[in-house]
Write a sequence for this structure.
């Protein structure tokens, strides 16, 4: 949906769970908001972990609901949640009756409220806390973000914009309401999506996404030592990198903003002077120092390779295989192929408990000459809009991998030409990412 008329003086900011883990972190958030008069709409997550052994509030609420459902006492978990929020309220010096809030949550869970209701209460309470601290309006997303009966978000941005117009507001992330009035959540990390929806609805010039890192890096720092930061990239590049495991920003959060012209700025709450990474519309970024934007990947994929003589002349052959996957509720990642071969790359989670059934059905319906299963594969994406029409990109990739004696199991390049996908063994994944990164960045 095309949205015209960007409001140059309006920003939306989303703060993640690590930014709101305790009162000290929240004070940093409040300082950031109060220092920028253009931050008019604030989206918040539930409090995250304060340290490595801590629990996220969302996980505790999920445990609370599970204990009640199974007929067990949830008093201990309720107390932990209540104490976390009570401490935050006390240290911020604001007035909010957390005990009353806990009583209400317990009432609805005891009355049969859904899991979505339970796990959304962390965002709900944090939204109230931040709204009180800032003296902003509190807007419950259950009143403006709607889902249809299939669980899909209804893109009613105009109505959301009317509700928010003229306000300075705090909106809890992660949830909205279904058409029958029940709380409905996005997938985990869905506060990013809420922020994008709000930014689209108010036609914000910038959507700031505040987290615990200073933007996207060109590779996973757990794999590559001190990778370079990505200063800017396009929406399409971000989508490719997020899908392949660069998890700074929810991969679905880009969709509401794909035609708005709103820029996305990934920022670090603990380092607010850092400019972070700017994500802009395609073609709207400046020149980059490297041909690629980044390298990202994931492990644990399976390749189902189907061979049949003169496959290319058999009308509907690929459709038969895809129909088998559809009937078994399996999504695929890639389908590289040749004249007589077709490979389907599937995430192992999708195939769990279904692999042999799928193979049997392919044999029965397609009568192939050979089916070969290869498990334990990792997928790596080399992403960069600057790669388009640049000769020698594949040569750099394959030379880097050959020097490390890494065998490529699969290669796929889409028509967009902004990414090359390769498959390697799980055991080769880290070495492959390092080799490719060094091949381009040096």
């Amino acid at each position: 949906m095309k949205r015209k008329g960007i409001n140059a003086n309006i920003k939306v900011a989303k703060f993640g769970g690590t930014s709101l883990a305790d009162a000290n972190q929240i004070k940093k958030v409040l300082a950031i908001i109060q220092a920028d008069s253009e931050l008019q709409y604030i989206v918040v997550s539930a409090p995250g972990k304060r340290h490595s052994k801590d629990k996220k509030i969302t996980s505790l609420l999920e445990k609370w609901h599970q204990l009640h459902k199974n007929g067990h006492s949830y008093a201990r978990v309720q107390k932990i949640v209540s104490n976390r929020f009570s401490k935050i309220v006390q240290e911020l010096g604001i007035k909010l009756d957390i005990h009353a809030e806990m009583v209400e949550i317990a009432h609805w869970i005891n009355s049969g409220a859904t899991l979505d209701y339970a796990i959304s209460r962390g965002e709900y309470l944090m939204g109230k806390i931040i709204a009180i601290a800032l003296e902003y309006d509190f807007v419950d997303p259950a009143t403006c973000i709607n889902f249809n009966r299939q669980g899909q978000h209804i893109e009613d941005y105009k109505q959301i914009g009317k509700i928010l117009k003229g306000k300075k507001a705090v909106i809890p992330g992660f949830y909205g309401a279904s058409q029958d009035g029940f709380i409905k959540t996005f997938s985990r990390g869905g506060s990013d999506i809420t922020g994008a929806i709000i930014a689209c609805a108010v036609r914000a010039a910038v959507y700031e996404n505040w987290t615990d890192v200073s933007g996207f890096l060109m590779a996973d720092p757990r794999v590559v030592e001190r990778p370079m930061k990505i200063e800017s990239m396009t929406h399409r590049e971000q989508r490719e990198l997020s899908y392949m495991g660069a998890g700074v920003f929810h991969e679905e959060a880009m969709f509401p903003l794909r035609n708005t012209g709103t820029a996305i700025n990934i920022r670090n709450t603990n380092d607010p002077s850092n400019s972070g990474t700017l994500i802009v519309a395609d073609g709207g970024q400046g020149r980059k120092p490297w041909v690629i934007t980044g390298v990202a990947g994931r492990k644990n994929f399976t390749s189902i390779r189907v061979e049949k003589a003169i496959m290319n002349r058999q009308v509907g052959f690929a459709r038969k295989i895809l129909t088998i996957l559809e009937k078994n509720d399996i999504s695929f990642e890639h389908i590289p192929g040749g004249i007589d071969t077709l490979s389907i790359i599937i995430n192992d989670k999708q195939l769990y408990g279904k692999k042999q059934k799928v193979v049997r059905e392919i044999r029965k319906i397609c009568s192939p000459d050979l089916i070969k299963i290869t498990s334990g594969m990792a997928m790596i994406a080399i992403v960069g809009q600057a790669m388009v029409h640049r000769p020698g990109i594949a040569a750099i990739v394959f030379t880097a991998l050959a020097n490390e004696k890494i065998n490529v199991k699969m290669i796929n390049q889409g028509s967009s030409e902004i990414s090359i996908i390769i498959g390697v063994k799980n055991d080769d994944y880290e070495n492959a990412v390092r080799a490719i990164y060094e091949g381009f960045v040096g």
Q: What stands out?
A: Residues 294-441 form a domain with the VC0802-like fold (CATH 3.30.2130.10). The mean pLDDT is 91. The two ends are 41 Å apart (CA to CA). The longest helix spans residues 115-134.
